[in-house]
Every structure is written in C-alpha cells, then in structure tokens.
Amino acid sequence: MIGKKAFPYAMITPSMIVFCLFFIYPIGYMIYLSLHDWNFVSPVKDFVGLSNFTSLFSEQEFLEVMRNSLVYTVLTVTLTTGTSLGLAVWLNKQGIVYRFVQGAMFSPHIISLVSISMLWMWLMDPDYGLLNWFLGLFGLPESPWLTDPSTSLLSLVLVAVWKGIGFNALVFIAGLQSIPRDMYEAASLDDATWFRTFWKITLPMLSPTLFFLIIINVISSFQVFETIAIMTQGGPINSTNTLVFYIYEYGFNFFKIGYASAAGVLLLIVVSVMTFFYFRLLSVKVHYR
Amino acid sequence: MAQITLKNVSKRFDDEYVVNNMNLTVKDGSFTVLVGPSGCGKSTTLRMIAGLEQVSEGEIWVDDECVNDVSPGKRDVAMVFQNYALYPTMTVKGNIEFGLTNKKVPKKERESLINDIASIVGLENHLYKKPQTLSGGQRQRVALARAMVKKPKVFILDEPLSNLDAKLRSQMRTELIQLHQRLGTTFIYVTHDQVEAMSMGDEIVLLNKGEIQQNDSPMNVYHYPVNVFSAEFIGTPAMNVFLMEKIMPYTSNIDKDAHYVGFRPEHAAILTTQPYEDSHCITLQGQLLTRETLGSETIYQIKHRAGNFTVKSFLPPLEENNKNVFVSIPYEKLYFFDENKEQDRDHHWKQASSLTVEGM
Lengths: 289, 360
Prior knowledge:
The complex is a heterodimer. Chain A is mostly helical. Helices cover 76% and strands 1% of the residues of chain A. Chain A has a single domain (52-284), classed as MetI-like fold, CATH 1.10.3720.10. Chain A has a two-stranded antiparallel ribbon with strand order 1-2. In chain B, α5 (166-183) links the parallel β7 and β8. Chain A binds chain B through residues 180, 182-183, 185-193, 196, 200-201, 204-205, 207, 287, 289, and chain B through 50-52, 71-74, 77-79, 81, 83, 85-90, 98-99, 102-103, 132, 146, 150.
C-alpha cells in the first residue's frame, strides 16, 4: 500500500530536485544575500538588513537604470507586437511569396544574440556602417546610433524589434488561422467593413495570443542583457544601462554581491507582479473559446 | 421579399464542376428546400446566392438585379449557418446588433428592433449573455434573431437544425414554419434530411452531383418522382427498385418496355398466408429477415430472389423471423423507369388505363 502511495512522489522526485536546486534554492539564496554585505570572496557575510534596498533607491544611477528598462520595455513591446500583428495580417495568406517572407522574417529568431549584436554594431557604425550609408543615399541626416545617449537606447530597441518580429508574427499567424472562417463570412453578410471586422472580430478573438505575446515580450525585454553587454556596456553615459546589466556589473565587476542581489530581488518582484497581473487579466478580460 | 433566379449557374473548383449549369427560380415568399446527399452542391448553391462564393459561370438575379458582383452584405440576404457562427466575443445583444450598427441604424431604432426580435424568439432574458453560455437551441435562436433583425429580402438557412437533438429539431421545425408564415419572406433552406425537406418546404429542389433532379412541391415529388434517384431519396424507407427482368417472372400483367420497376414500402401489404389470386396486385413470396418495430409502424426487411426489399406496415407487428411471407403491391402503385432511370411516363399511363379496363 505504502509503495503504491509513494510511487507518484518517486516519479516526480527527479524533476523536483532539479526544480529546487536551480530555481527555489537560488531565489532563496539571492534573498538571503540581498540582506547581507559580501564581496564574493570574504568568508564573512555581514547582515545589514534592508540597507541594500534603501541605498539602491537613493542611488541616482539606479533610478536611471529603472527608467531605461521601462522605456526600453515599453518601446520594444509596443513596436514588436504592433508591427508583427500588422505583418501577420498581411502574411496570413497562401502563396509562395508569403511563405518566403514568413521564413525570412523568422530567421533572426534562430541566430544567437551575440552574432546579432556584432552584426548590428557593424551596421550602426557611424563612420562606415551600412545604415548611415543608406540614410545618405536618400539624403537623410546621418545618425550617431549607439554612440550618442539620445539615440543609443532607441538603437537597441531597433535590434530587439528586428529580432522579435519574426517569432511574434508567426505566433500571430497561428492565432489568426484558428479563427473560424465562417466568422468572417457572417461578418461579410452583416456588411461589416474590413476595419470593423478586424476591430470587432479578429482582435477580440486574437486576444489570448495578443496577451501571451505581450507578457513574454515584457518579461524578456525587462531581462535584456546580451545586446547591452556586447554593444554598449550600458553607455554612453549610462544611457543604455538596464536592470539586468546593472545587476551583472555590480555583482561581477564591482563585487558588491549584496547590493546586486537586492536589485535582483526587485527584478523578481517586478516580473512576478507582471505575471500575476497577466493571469488575472487573462481570466477576466480575455476571451477564451 | 424577392424572387431569386439562377441562370445557367455553374461552380467549378479547378476542373471539377460542383454545380453544373443550374437553372432555378425561387418564387417570391416561398419556402424552398434544397435537398440532396452530401457533395451534391446544395451548400455551394446556397453560398453562391449569399455571395460567399463567386459563380464560375452564369448569373444570379434577385428580383430584377443581377447580383454577381454585389458583395454579400449588400445583397439584402441573411444567413443562418450550420454551426450558427455567432461572434463568441460579443453578447447575444451584440451579435444581433452588429449588422444593424454596420448599416448605421440609429441607436434608438436598434434598441426597439432588438427588443422586438428578442421577444419573438424568446431571448429577452439572455440578451447580455455570451453565446457559449447558451444551450444549442438558444444559440439557434440567436442566429435566427441575428438574421431576422436585418429584415432581409431572402433568408438563407444552411442545415440550421443539424446540430440539435431530435426533440428540439422537430420543435424548431415547427417554429421555422410558423416564422416563415409570419414573415412572408423568401426562405431558402438547405438540408440533407428528406424529412425536413418534406415537412418544411413548399417547394423542393432535389439535387444530385451538382444537377437538379426534380423541382416540385413535396407531395408531387413523393407521388411523381421523375427518376430513380428522386424515388429513392424521398420517402423513408427508400423506394424498392428492381430491374424489370428480375420481377417479370412473378407477374404477367406488366408489359416489358420499362427497365426498372419500383414500389414504396408503405404501399405494400404483408401477409402470412397466400392471398387469393388478384389481378390488381402483384404478389411476391419471400422470407422475413428483420423487423423494426417503431410503435406506430413496423418496417420489415424481406429476402426475395429478385432482391431484398423493405415493407412498412401500420398493422400490429408479425411475430416470427425467417418466416415465409407474402407481399402484395397494387399495380397502380408501381413506378416504372426507363434504362436512363428516368420515369417512364407513357408506360405508367398505359398500365393505369389497362387497369381501369380490367377493373370494369
């Protein structure tokens, strides 16, 4: 009898061990560290209470970092979602051209972010980059791209949107194809214009897909790291320094582990709140068939 | 209110004709039922009238306007879909209102129209619910209300009852008939169910393989089927049809012109004892195979050397299986078809007149 009862637990033990070891334990340890002062090598961890958090919020640099993260996230998510939805509506057709464009758009998704970062650094080089050459071709003013604080964050948004569009559009297309054809037929018999059909039928029925994409985009944008680490190192003048890069710098360059962990706890809270909000919204607002 | 005319209408997908050179007039205010087996082109015809499919050849006229290039929303037709196709993100009210808003009907008028329709179909208490919380019958009513509220010239119904259970289906059948009488609008109704076709239509268009087989009133289709397909499709159980040469050995009273002969299961009498020789009837001796007792009637499968056939009887059911039975069919109830499976009218008449002579 006991053997029978224990069997299911035995079956999930391996995954639970992995889950605890690589998920629960690091989170717990991070929270523990955020309450201490530690330099990564010292055998002593001094308990400092919440002072890591208070100094975090009194730091002008950290507030800038939070602002950057927010701006980056809002811009990336709106641009990625909006553009890919438009493209998905356009590409949701049969035909070799559409399939080719879909494939071409998706390809950035499978390239490593490091390669993408290198590629865009070349493209965005102010002196011999392809983008400025292109702008010049049309007589447009050249842009300093990554080298100026006023354009650096936007340039990173551009890279993120470019990488994200293919995947997002693909998920949108799948969502569009799951809308029954007779919905559109009924709408055409109801004499609905294209725009009204889109606004009143397509978009509401696409809402589960839309919200899913928004939330995974928000979370991944908030956690952006690779492009910043490779392309700008948070500069110039801190203009592209975002939360995860900030944590990395304080933890592994300045060895202020407690301080970095406190920022990590904040990131965890932000992401958790957004996820919670997302699921609440899903159950209330979003239409599920 | 409108008359619909199909002039040489064809629909092809690639090289395959789904509807072939169809000529049809749907009379103003009629309840016309397009009926036929699946794949006969009835739904395609309907969708062409609605404008959801383009015609490949020919013209569709509503009254005196050719609507080939008119978009579905401007044709003044309303359609009820097989699976209702209600907008799941809108409430019942939103579903009914959508078409009106598109036509820019003022809000006050919309409200009163919706309230009227809701009380007709009995949805007053469900106006603010989402379709997925309603039962099948209620959804059906929402679909009807959505079509009715637009006051269309033509109602198009694509197998609207096929998703309902048997009891609800017969209830909705009656309601649809009443609705048609009340509105007086032209109804075009598609079904594969001949019972629905017979009970609801005042005009039946029987289709097979994209072509019209027969277009007549239900009783005429039943009594005067023009071909074997029509004879076998209308009526339950289907008409028994034999090759003439198989039946010839058992009778002497039919001349040999016709190629096929048939009789309806309900026109035959089943007996356990040999009846007296009767010049008005053909009598076939066979063995009882199966018996379906349906309460008011009984359906028998009978094994005969000419082929198995069915008999429907309203008398108390016979008890034993595998028993010898005698089935008599009056000559005047026989149907004759020529080698193209078309009705052999001349033959039929000859037989009928010779019978009267004998009867005198």
